[in-house]
Amino acid sequence: MNNNNNKVIMLVGKISRELYYNKEKSWGAYGFTTTEKIKSDALSPNKYGNVMFGNIAGKLQPLEVGQKYIMEVTEKYNRKYKRVEFEAVNVYSEIPKTIAQKRNFLSTFLTKLQTDTLLESYPNIINMAINDEEIDVSILHNISESKIEDMKYKIVLNYGLSDLIEFLKPYGVSFKQIEKMSSLNSNTSLLKKEILENPYILSKVKGIGFKIADEIAMKMNPKLKHSEKRVYALLEFILNEEANGNGHTWLSRKEMLSYGRSLIPECFDILKDVLSRDSDENGFLHIDGDRIGRANDYITEKEIYNQLERIDKSKTCIDLPTTKQVETMMIDIEKEQGFELSVEQKNTLYNLSSTDNVVVVSGQSGSGKTTVVNSISTILERTQRENGKPKLAISQMALSAKASMRLLEVTDRNSTTIHKFLYELKKMKEAQEDISFENTEEVMDAIIEVEKVADSDVIIIDEFSMVNIYLTLNVLKMVKSGAIIVFVFDYAQRQ
């Protein structure tokens, strides 16, 4: 039995079947055939001796049945099945050059008619997909847009990512991490160039972060050890961690220097110089005295302030209850719900008679915030009715689906999640920006849902202590002037 685990063998194999693939772990096992003459216990010949059969397993991208791959493998003994198999070191495809080669690849997941149509319109389709060039689906009469997107994904996976895999695998980057890099740039050729120029962009990939990106950067280019690129990568990492972990959008200069001394002591002098400037010439930082944060966060927070001021300073678009009305309605609410309101809850409701347009309800879990929210809506609705005014339009939303459902259960009023609302908003805007869009049922539903919030007299946002500034701004922009917006906080929670 030949079991030289350290010797790398290179061969060309054609995938014959998928034995197993786990997308989460990027681990798979495949059967393949090869015509190459390689002596290995991991290969067995057919009855004519002109084709060899084998299995390949390990951390690798999904492989297409019927597709040929260049395989760099080592031999490994499988104790479970008591046989020698090939373990994947690197698996990639050469980009098809001829029409026949392209047809062979495309036919593994498209019909013959679809393959013919595609190659007739776009004979250079493989390179177009790798370089993320636009493909006009309207001229491909028998291929849907979703099919084209699936095709582009498979092409990038087989050919575009192969170059990245070969490039980054020596630095310990997994296929799963490489697959996520399309979020940085869908053009893999440009992405490789960007990584070479600044390896720290890898820190933006989920699962890598600054520390791993720093190790890769040191291997790629040791000169980065003393550089501003390394300093700015650290600053971005620190501010991201603070924003996501603690909800802070700035840190003091002293805190920044402490992080730098701990994590990149070789760049401490460069860090001090960057933080001592009155402004950041790179446009990433906002420096205000001793406070240092991201410029985008500062701009966003400033716009949030402007939106809140717009809402709060506008004339309230509904009738507010008198103190007497609040008192009478609280008695009715207590009878209806079968229990008395607490002193804190009553004091909050009394404020409705002279409230600003921006209302904050704060309390720990179980303190009765949802009951207060329901009571606010009830009192405002009944005030409108008693004063002979039109029925109130009330919108409710929360960060999580669970909290949204809780609002629905307690208040018996429609509720949604913030992300669903913003998704509908995005869908509506995209449709309206496209001059050729059709009023499909999906688009019309999105428009209706967004307009409900935009026309609402009262908007309630639960779990607001967990909502980031970017979501906040997008929601506030849709709130009409004069509406009442109620932020519900749990001060023990944080983003």
Summarize the structure.
The chain has helices spanning 99-106, 112-121, 125-130, 145-168, 175-180, 188-197, 209-220, 228-246, 253-263, 268-275, 295-313, 323-337, 343-350, 369-386, 401-411, 418-433, 441-454, 469-476, and strands at 9-22, 27-34, 44-45, 52-59, 68-78, 83-92, 250-252, 285-288, 291-294, 358-362, 394-398, 416-417, 458-462, 484-489. The chain is of the alpha/beta class and 495 residues long. The two termini are 57 Å apart.
Describe the structure.
- The model has no long low-confidence stretch (mean pLDDT about 85).
- Helix 8 packs across helix 9 and helix 14 crosses helix 15.
- The protein has 4 domains: about 80 residues, Beta Barrel (OB fold (Dihydrolipoamide Acetyltransferase, E2P)); about 100 residues, no CATH class; about 100 residues, Arc Repressor Mutant, subunit A (Orthogonal Bundle); about 170 residues, P-loop containing nucleotide triphosphate hydrolases (Rossmann fold, 3-Layer(aba) Sandwich).
- Helix 18 links the parallel strand 13 and strand 14.
- About 30% of the residues are buried.
- The chain is globular.
- It is built from 18 helices and 14 strands.
- The protein is of the alpha/beta class.
- Strands 1-2-4-6-5 form a 5-stranded mixed barrel. A 5-stranded parallel beta sheet has the order 10-14-13-11-12. Strands 7-9-8 form a 3-stranded antiparallel beta sheet.
